Amino acid sequence: MANQRDTSGGTPRLTAGEIAKIAWLTARMAKRGLADDRVYGGRVYQGDLERRVDRILDGARAREGGRGRRS
Predict the structure, then answer these.
(1) Which domain holds residue 27?
(2) pTM here?
């Protein structure tokens, strides 16, 4: 059952471009995480990159939601 796809608002199918953008943003998040001094922890702000990933996922969900109406 772990192989079944959750279509109830989970992660939508992504295009190659969306996957590349999310991978690039994830790498930037990792780079920022490495730049954190770890003494005080969590001082590096990553909310802007997280919002960009959320926008990409929201666009993919909207695209998938509109797919059924066009056919």
Answers:
(1) 16-66
(2) 0.72
